[in-house]
Give the backbone structure.
Amino acid sequence: MTFSAFRILKEGLTGNTGWKPHWRDPAPKQDYDAIIIGGGGHGLSTAYYLAKNHGLTNIAVLEKGYIGSGNIGRNTTIVRANYFLPGNSEFYSHSLKLWEGLESELNYNVMHSQRGLINLFHSDGQRDAFVRRGNSMINQGDDAILLDRDGVRQHLPYLDFDNTRFPIFGGLLHPRGGTARHDAVAWGYARGADQRGVDLIQNCEVTGIDIVDGKVTGVQTTRGAIKAKKVAIIVAGRSGQVAAMAGMRLPIESHVLQAFVTEGLKPIINHVVSFGMGHFYMSQSDKGGLVFGGDIDFYASYASRGNLPMVEHVMEAGMTLMPMIGKARVLRSWGGIMDMTPDGSPIIDKTGIDGLFIDCGWNYGGFKAVPASGWCMAHLMATGQSHDVAKGFRLDRFLTGRGLMDEEGTGSQHNLH
């Protein structure tokens, strides 16, 4: 089924009775060429690009819940390519290019809105750091505009520019940055993968990984054993638990990150705004709600509930940056489980077990990386070689100490990333 203005008009006039399910609900087969554990954004995009770019269609995506029930549906929807370090910069640049053609590629409206992203700075030192970052972005081929105080005021007149602790000195504008509809991204990739023959198997939890003589042979699930010569672990905050089934201990910690949304309001915020001194970020959804978040909860957890001290911290940061937010009612909050690495950068690599691959450690950057993560993971699984833009995301960098990418310069403590 394809989408068009004519089809939407026709269905609207006929009671929307002609729509069909967007993907099949198949029973698992006994044997696949490849199995992808995890039906989130990264897993679905990997399956899609394996089929589209490499012609591999005998693939199963195994999801213990329903498609898109994890972090892909639990985030603040920000898309950007304003990274600084080599290794990260070219990867997220590639991802943004894929975002810009994604709706046409999938024939699906993922509501990608390049409304622009502004990172604020509040000191001379921060200004210097953002000048360097902006120059790095431009050298990479992306866009960056340094704004002084008046330049920020033209875009964001409602901020508290004269806050005593955190006066606004200026900002770095990334015009191609913006947002997308998180669950629509999952649905679009799921639909595209299904159309190319990929089996999307829901309510199928992996309970074990079968390994014989150092080679992966398949997985055990709540719906029976399934054989495969290649298995990819792409389960975000559950990566450590699933990898343990294969006898691996990953260099990650899992933390909860909370996000919030207010009641629907008239359009007031045209950009994504990031408050550097308070680690607070906000945008306005198409439905009018203000979507915002801050730091992780700073303790390791597999629970997605979050705690009240971090709620207070986020609200304080919001009020400090834009006092007008105090008039908005918060409708709901949610939490996603973040897989945090010691250097704050991800892992896309083969493991020491033949045929077993790992894609994890996305920290705060998982949603914006969905297209490029799938593209590069598919390339790795199909060819056995890392894609050029993902060569820095090696697993063994944490063993050797070579090639670490500490994007924020906060050291080796997981929860600081």
